[in-house]
Amino acid sequence: MTLNETKIACYHCGDECADSPIVLEEKHFCCHGCKTVYEILQDNNLCSYYDLNQHAGVSLKAANFSGKYDYLSDDTIQAQLLDFQSDTINKVTLFIPAIHCSSCVWLLENFNKIQLGVFTARLNFLKKELSLSYDPSKVSLQTIVELLATLGYEPLINLQSAEHQPKQNKVQRRLILQIGVVGFCMGNVMLLSFPEYFKLDLNNLVDATYQRFFLYLNFLLSLPVFFFGASDYLRGAFISLRENIQKKTNVLSVDIPIALGISALFIRSTFETFVNHSAGYWDSLAGLVFFLLTGKWVQQVTYNYLSFERNYKSYFPLAVKVKNGYKNVSELQKGDIIDIHNQELIPADSILLSERGYIDYSFVTGESEPIKKEKGELIYAGGRLIGERASLTVQKQVSQSYLTELWNNDAFKKEKKTVTTDLANAFSKYFTYVTLVIATITGIYWYFNNPALVWSSITAVLMVACPCALTLSMPFTMNTTMGIFGRNKFFVKNQAVIQLLTEINQVVFDKTGTLTENKNGQLHFEDGQLNDEEKNWVGQLAAQSVHPLSKMIYKHLGIGKGNISYFDEIKGMGIEGVVDGNFIRLGNAEYLGLAAGGVRTSQVNVEINREYRGYFTIKADYRKNWKEVLKQLKGNFKMALVSGDNDEEKENLSPFFDKGRLLFNQKPQDKLNFIKQEQEAGYHVLMIGDGLNDAGALRQSNVGIALSEDVQAFSPACDAILDASMFSRLTDFLKFSKIALTIVKASFVLSVVYNFIGIGWAVSGQLSPVMAAIFMPLSSLSVVLFAVGMTYLFARIKKLI
């Protein structure tokens, strides 16, 4: 039985040990990196890490951190990252995308036991942030970051991470404070209202005294409820009325009927307390405001640990090597000479000083073929260097480079409009008018029939006719939908995105990395033939390299027995070696001295004993079930594809897209312009892409979905992030968005029914405080339970949970 058939799993990360495994204490490891991590944990008595979760570690096969974090030794760069700095203690917060399980939490919170000089380590699992305090005289930030990277928890440090953001949004913090204050007051008001609930004997002097005291105490507790808890609704209603008067419009916000109900409750309860010395509606007031604030908080809650808003600062390194040390990328000036290493992004438009360089522009253009650049040629920002280190002369500041022009487009400066959010305002407009008419008719009726009931009946109508159920159904339904989507690895930015998804009538795709996979591809050998022995030699040589193309060749061919007596690799060019006495070279056309004309730079040419034998080509694999997804979408939406790649796959893709809407060799600005043209033609566009080259189109579209292999590590500016593994369920998410909006509308109907019953009761003038305290929370709760329950029911029917 061969090794591949036994499928031995790495003890640390769980990856298959496809090569001869490294064995230590009867434990198998896929690479020396995983073995090193195990030894570090063993030396510090922290192997309980593996008891919490089997194969909990992160694969380190391609890890190479040599020199990567040298810039952290620069005091100026270091100061930009630190939260606090002194002679005896430094504090820093690092974002670590690789955190994924309880073992990660346990290990990182015990980091101080691994690294001498670290005082404390605290982890925020949801935000994937590790907060460290350490002694700068005993350990440096560079040493800490390099050790974390060695353990498989490489921090994400970029230009944006140096800009310290407030830890918590002030608006969100104020809302939480409002909920806390109102919740405290509500609980105490309900407790002090027990005499009313149980109808204590008011002829008893002691009971009457306590009852009077409780009434006044309820009034005091209700002051912060009204003036602090309900202040946003009162202010919103005032602003809406003022704008209607100034602009002579007739658009009433949903805050107006809410403010009417809250004000009626406060005024009526104050009158009852101080004039009639009887029970008011203080518990109903506190309960109503508490439910409204809770719904508002639910509406604001989103996946804060994901980043939906990104600009160029999210992708560029914090610093680059210059002549006299390191320099912050944002401070680069024209004329600065910078050194860029293999796989690093070029942060500014620059002239190449080195003899040659291979630049991968797929990050910017979507074109998957690396481009060869000669000395003196201009290289645009956003290109990724492939191969040996290169020196460049900066031509433009980072903020003025080709890549950053994308963020100067108007699409990034305006907020997207949600048409369906007007539904609530339209409802409240008529709701307010109808309520005022009913209150007026009620007052007139009782004025002529029983004047004593005029005041109580009018205020009762205004109190009961509050669209609180209306304002609660939307956030609770949409938030539940967000949670269901999140379970299925589809993360939406906010509730408005779900509503926007229901309006989509055109879907636009990118190709590279969206319809095709970034990590996998089909390998073909062309222009020649290799026998089994030669395949073994080539596979053995390829196994010695960590380059992605070499790894694909090795995986495709496999290896047997053989002796490698010589090996050398020139990064970005190729590899050579002697296997069983045979001299073999693998690499690009230039490396093998072939004519470059018409030869693709991603071809891996093969030479055995100085004889050219052919070349390997890699054709990107399409995502699983991609044809089924496109067929389903085409039945309901207009379909288009805009790709920065060449048109090699045009024939294969044409059956799934509308005629004339299959566009290739598109620049980022071209993609954005296409989306804009479609919108001007009346389409509501959903754009699905994966790279920075799609950022403008994603932002311009009505809804932009970023498809990502790793939702934590990368996503361009977008409205939603879809894990690539869930691509096949895209149509299910679009359909369920419409179901969610239907549930909201059904909740509106239920709210109307409750208001009809309540108003009918209030018109009679017989609405007592006790009955109001029961009826009003019951109506709100039932609408919330209906909305949440129906959402879960349909999610189960659609097999989303």
TrEMBL record:
SUPFAM superfamilies: Calcium ATPase, transduction domain A, Calcium ATPase, transmembrane domain M, HAD-like, HMA, heavy metal-associated domain. The chain crosses the membrane at residues 175-193, 213-230, 251-267, 279-298, 430-448, 454-472, 739-764, 770-795. It is found in: Cell membrane. InterPro entries: ATPase-cat-bd, ATPase_P-typ_cyto_dom_N, ATPase_P-typ_P_site, ATPase_P-typ_TM_dom_sf, ATPase_P-typ_transduc_dom_A_sf, ATPase_P-type_domA, HAD-like_sf, HAD_sf. Keywords: Cell membrane, Ion transport, Magnesium, Membrane, Metal-binding, Phosphoprotein, Translocase, Transmembrane, Transmembrane helix, Transport. It is a multi-pass membrane protein. Its main location: membrane. The keyword Acyltransferase does not apply. Gene3D superfamilies: 3.30.70.100, Calcium-transporting ATPase, cytoplasmic domain N, Calcium-transporting ATPase, cytoplasmic transduction domain A, HAD superfamily/HAD-like. The keyword Transmembrane applies. It comes from the Bacteria. Belongs to the cation transport ATPase (P-type) (TC 3.A.3) family. Type IB subfamily. This is Heavy metal translocating P-type ATPase. It comes from Emticicia soli.
